[in-house]
UniProtKB/TrEMBL annotation:
The record marks 56 as: Crucial for catalytic activity. Residues 1-187 form the N-acetyltransferase domain. This is Alpha-tubulin N-acetyltransferase. PROSITE patterns: GNAT_ATAT (PS51730). Acetyl-CoA binds at residues 121-134, 157-166.
Length: 288
């Protein structure tokens, strides 16, 4: 993608990182020029975001200057310094960021996690199938010290999924009902620094422990139908794991918002005295 201004004056390297400051990481210049630099970077972000949205048939861009402000999101830009008659061209970009997500694992158990996500990925149509996407993605993984299977992907296209399977061998797609996709291995070690949350009916709690939850002043939810109990991982592994409800895996031809398996209704389980188990990571106190 070409621009009227000199892209090479903004980006001195092939791979460049942009944050909410709109100042290239390795940019060095007179402080009086910073405002002009930010305006040009803003133009680049808005234009490539629109191009990505068109390529993905989205109603509005996922990437723009306004969406980058006041976030911890990072945009990686791939630049061709010889393009546009020596002014430089933008070949593609990749955007990552942290998100607080509710995700279901292979067994249908839910996890509340703050996880790193791939939010947008685009290579210009004239430069595809040239290995540029792999250069971008690999740079991001190395820069952020991540494994491919540990990323949640926002609304991946079939082409993107094929790219990940071809270059990184990810498999075992776990579709979600919030537009994200994760892969087998994503939930490994999910208990690190975490805890488990269990939901029981009062009757089930008494059957398991022999006394009422009111005795321990444990909080109740769902208008008194359920007792919420937090336990360390060791108790989950040794005792409560056998009460986990699993949901059979099914093959699907689509991914994202409407493709995820729908777990059994928790309220229905509570009414019929079936224990419902959810796994939640320790809250970070950070807002998305």
């Amino acid at each position: 993608m070409d621009f009227k201004f000199d892209v090479n004056k903004l980006f001195v390297k092939e791979l460049n990182k942009i944050t909410h400051t709109l100042i290239p990481t390795d940019f060095t210049s007179n402080p009086q020029e910073l405002r002009d630099v930010q305006m040009k970077v803003s133009t680049i972000l808005d234009d490539i975001g629109k191009a990505s949205a068109i390529a993905q048939n989205l109603n509005q861009p996922v990437t723009s200057t306004s969406k980058l402000q006041d976030t911890d999101h990072i945009v990686y830009l791939l630049v061709d310094s010889s393009g546009n008659r020596g002014l430089g061209s933008i070949l593609g970009f990749l955007k990552t960021g942290w998100k607080n997500l509710f995700l279901f694992d292979e067994a249908g158990l839910y996890h509340k996690l703050r996880t790193k996500c791939v939010l947008d990925f685009y290579v210009h149509e004239s430069k595809q199938r040239m290995g540029l996407g792999k250069i971008l993605y690999q740079h991001m993984l190395e820069e952020e010290h991540l494994q491919p299977e540990k990323l949640a992907i926002d609304r991946p296209s079939n082409k993107f999924l094929q790219f990940l399977q071809k270059h990184y061998g990810v498999h075992g797609i776990i579709t979600q009902n919030n537009k994200f996709v994760v892969f087998k291995g994503f939930f490994d070690n999910v208990f690190l620094n975490g805890y488990c949350i269990f939901f029981f009916s009062t009757k089930m709690f008494i059957d398991l422990f022999g006394f009422s939850p009111d005795y321990l002043r444990i909080s109740t939810d769902f208008s008194g139908f359920s007792t919420q109990l937090r336990l360390p991982e060791i108790l989950f592994r040794s005792f409560f794991g056998k009460h986990a409800i699993s949901y059979p895996a099914t093959s699907r031809s689509s991914y994202g918002r409407y493709a995820a398996a729908k777990p059994t209704c928790s309220v229905a389980n509570i009414i019929h005295d079936v224990p419902t188990l959810g796994l939640i990571n320790e809250p970070t106190g950070s807002k998305n």
